[in-house]
Amino acid sequence: MFGEKAYLLIKELDRNRDSLPPYNTELLSEIHNEVKQLVTENQEDANVSEQSRLVENVSYVPTLKIRHAAIKRNIRCILAYHYNRLKCLKTIRWQFGSILPPEVKANLSQAEIDFFSKYSSSLMQYMRGIGDDGGVNLAVNLKPPKSLYIEVRCVVDYGQLELSDGSALLLKKNSRHHLPRTECEELIRQGVLEHVV
Amino acid sequence: MYVEDLKNEFYEFLTGKRILLLVHYDIDSICALKILQSILKHKEVRYTLCVVRGVEDLKRSHQEHCADVKYFVLINCGGTVNLVDVLEPADDAVFFVIDAHRPTHLDNIFSDGQVRLLWGPNEDAEVPEFQAVYRDDSDDESGGEDEDEENEGEGRAAKKRRLDEEAIMRRRERRLWEQRRFDIIAEYSQYTYYAKASAVAMYKLAWLLNKDDKDLLWLAIVALTEQFLFSKIENTQYVLAAGELQAHTTRLKNRSNDADVATSLKISFEKDLKLVLYRHWCVESSLKYSMFTACKMKLWSHRGSKKLYELLADMGLPVAQSQQSFESMDLQLRKEFHESLEKLSEKYNLEDLIFTSFVLQFGYRNKYCASDIVYAMLAILESSPRDKPEECFNSALDCLSRRHKETLQKAIERAKTITKTLFKTVQAAIDMKQIITAGSFVYYIIQEVREYEINNNNNETKTDFQGSLDWYMLSNQHILLLLAQFILRAYVSMSKNKKAPDLPLIISAPKNLELGTCIVLGIPPLRQLSPKNNLGRAFEEAAENINYDVLSDYFDTSYFEIFTKDRTRFFDALTALFDK
């Protein structure tokens, strides 16, 4: 039946909602062939219809219409497939940064890899332009933080921490501090500080 | 220097600055800290928190941070010591002090801006005049120089005689002035007492800034109840302060929000009983181990426990019910519990069992009265032998936030053990007659673990563990205070001595086994209603008399620390002092 393979393609994408399955080259080429076949069949029948219009009035128009619908369906599915993969890729860029982990890279086609690098550089160029003094890395907080300052508790004995205004802060185990978010984020990620709600 | 306009000169002043918060290790300061934290969140203030247990800790924390931090906020510590002398800060360092301990050190009051006290002069009683205590020393010398310039014409001998006389007069006057100054300062600082709780003052600031809410009000309530339960303030002061907080409670009541029980937070002002943790315990235990009932009905004796059962029978409470936890008693009995006790209070000599307090309710199951929370926090802060003070501090902060219910539950369980231990210690003390009268005061010494080891060689491990748990708990300030009050009341109720209510109590507990020190606390006699305590002064004088190097580190001068081997000498000196 027409459009079955396209349906399989979409189902595969649906099964892996947030992650990228490997680029399904064979299925795509099968659909590609199906579309080509449909197009050629359509062209023949269109020619026959055109020629016979003048002589016998044989009309293959309904068949043409069905095949056309099938062709359009296949193309729509292929486009949806590519579009959703790119959307997923963009989310990955925002979450993980501009270096792709190798397991993700293995699942991409060459065109997608090219798209990713161009998207990444475009984003970097934009981020460098906004904000003063070198740009703002928008990918740090995907949701806007509720407050500029957070209260943290030190979990291990870290020693002296140099703040951005030059002053030093002694981080002993179990000490509590109230600091700007920007200073603490790195340390929270390392596990030295713990955010106290 | 007094800072009365807290909003501009304290709150707005600290915007954007880097400060160090030095917090004393007690319940009032933890509540005050939480309130201050929530209002400082709105200003971009970078702060670091340090927990301070005594003057040494204060010095050390200051030393560690004085290179980077210029503004210090001291909560419940430092008001009674001369900050500039003790800490030797840089000239541009500023100290903001909010302290409930009194009397405030005179140097802090008359400081010219380096030490700023966050209350008004009306809260410090009987502060002497500036002239009486400080004197410009340069007056003397400049007087001498003027004389020299003027009298060039006079004869040398005559001038010298005149100068000599004047010098002698000035010296005499100076000596008299110093004598008077010494007397004034001695009289000013002889009594130690507590003023308004720091948390209540912080709550007022939050109210001024319109940033108050029920959470902060509850913290202020807990701090006030702590002062009342440990008899740090008089009854009348408590009633006045509770009245003010009640006004806030009614103001913050929100009828529409409160209707949704699952998410609302309700604070109500109710009459409450002076029974420890009775809502979370069984009635019989609560009646038996609470200080108030135990002392009035002498529940450590055999006759006393019979009286207890009589009371329960009179109330209509079957013994089986009274031994179950309060929540699982019959609904009818639970509702009538308060009234039945009130009706029988006269017969069993239990007047003053009722006092007015606040109850917090959130969600369907959580109903806590303020004294419950006070005991729970006391258990966290002072009865964990293994944890370091900072960890206990953090647990206490967790316990106050309503998210950590298990912390609170565990703490309440530990508070029950503490109450039982106190009762058993008092019972042992009375049975073995360990409360000794020394003429003009009563004393009780808690023995150390070593003594147990000598006596019971067979059960070494058993008594070891029990002894160590007891004495560890009792070496902390507030538990020791509770024990002292319990013992004094028990002694007075058992004693046939007519002078018993007039005798102060001195109690001593081992503090640090490796260093061999013990902590000594004195509390005023029962008949004295005001909690003003002049035993700190007595300790200092006794120590001077025996030429003892003072080890005391506590901000509250009624606590003292001495070496155990010098204890007997110290007590002898005290006896001599009291006899005078």
TrEMBL record, chain B:
Chain segments carrying region Disordered? 131-159
Q: Where in the cell is it found?
A: Nucleus
Q: Where is this chain compositionally biased, Acidic residues type?
A: 137-152
Provide the species name. Answer: Zophobas morio
Which protein are we looking at? Cell division control protein 45-like protein
Write out the entry's keywords from A to Z: Cell cycle, DNA replication, Nucleus
Gene Ontology molecular functions:
chromatin binding; DNA replication origin binding; single-stranded DNA binding
Lineage: superkingdom: Eukaryota
PANTHER family tied to this protein: CDC45-RELATED PROTEIN (PTHR10507), CELL DIVISION CONTROL PROTEIN 45 HOMOLOG (PTHR10507:SF0)
Its Gene Ontology cellular component terms are: DNA replication preinitiation complex
Any Pfam family hit: CDC45
* Any GO BP: double-strand break repair via break-induced replication
The UniProt entry lists the main location of this chain as nucleus
The similarity comment for this entry is: Belongs to the CDC45 family.
Q: Which InterPro entries match?
A: CDC45, DHH_sf
Checking SUPFAM superfamilies in the record gives: DHH phosphoesterases
